[in-house]
Design goal:
single chain, mainly beta, 7-stranded mixed beta sheet, 4-stranded antiparallel beta sheet
């Protein structure tokens, strides 16, 4: 079983930055792919970014490419999402999620952290 806990959300002005953190439990964190998703009010949850188990490959939604950076520290069992040049449309609850080794999908999810960007 894996538990994920996000932190680092908050209120920021447009153009500002935030760094989200995701703390993971479990002995095999280094074998998981990790992802960040978000859900704005009245909208479906959407993909933001993902990073492979060794950090060697990343992928981003077009809407955040060039502004957000996903990273991980396997020794600390942490994943991060650095968000720069934030826009009001980035306002959402942000979730981290994990793909266990051998799985084809995100089996574990955190509880989410609110990010609000004011104009």
């Amino acid at each position: 079983q894996v538990q994920l806990v996000e932190s680092g959300g908050g209120l920021v002005q447009a153009g500002g930055s935030l760094r989200l953190s995701c703390a993971a439990s479990g002995r095999t964190f280094s074998s998981y792919a990790m992802g960040w998703f978000r859900q704005a009010p009245g909208k479906e949850r959407e993909f933001v970014a993902t990073i492979m188990w060794n950090g060697g490959s990343t992928r981003y939604a077009d809407s955040v490419k060039g502004r957000f950076t996903i990273s991980r520290d396997n020794a600390k069992k942490m994943a991060y999402l650095q968000m720069n040049s934030l826009k009001p449309e980035d306002t959402a609850v942000y979730y981290c999620a994990a793909v266990p080794y051998g799985s084809s999908g995100y089996d574990y999810w955190g509880q989410g952290t609110q990010v609000t960007v004011s104009s």
